């Protein structure tokens, strides 16, 4: 894959209570990624962008919620979440940016 393709795979880091706990406990970082991204592409993108070593990647497909907009029913978009486990000694610090 080209470098520009790798840069577009990761949409944003997900920072919440649950992901912070996963980071402290299991050395995991959570990202929102493209729906078409594979585990191997996510691994290469994280290693390229953050210069860290990735141990494993777990992927979760999140279904969009059904919401009411006035008298109409609508659905939010589906999206994909990636739990990236880093090797010992590797760390990504989002608070420094």
UniProtKB/TrEMBL annotation:
Keywords: Ribonucleoprotein, Ribosomal protein, RNA-binding, rRNA-binding. One of its GO terms (biological process) is translation. The keyword Signal does not apply. It comes from the Bacteria. GO terms for molecular function: rRNA binding; structural constituent of ribosome. GO terms for cellular component: ribonucleoprotein complex; ribosome. InterPro entries: Nucleotide-bd_a/b_plait_sf (IPR012677), Ribosomal_uL23-like (IPR013025), Ribosomal_uL23/eL15/eS24_sf (IPR012678). It holds the Pfam family Ribosomal_L23. Belongs to the universal ribosomal protein uL23 family. Part of the 50S ribosomal subunit. Contacts protein L29, and trigger factor when it is bound to the ribosome. PANTHER family: 60S RIBOSOMAL PROTEIN L23A. One of the early assembly proteins it binds 23S rRNA. One of the proteins that surrounds the polypeptide exit tunnel on the outside of the ribosome. Forms the main docking site for trigger factor binding to the ribosome. This is Large ribosomal subunit protein uL23. It comes from Methylomagnum ishizawai.
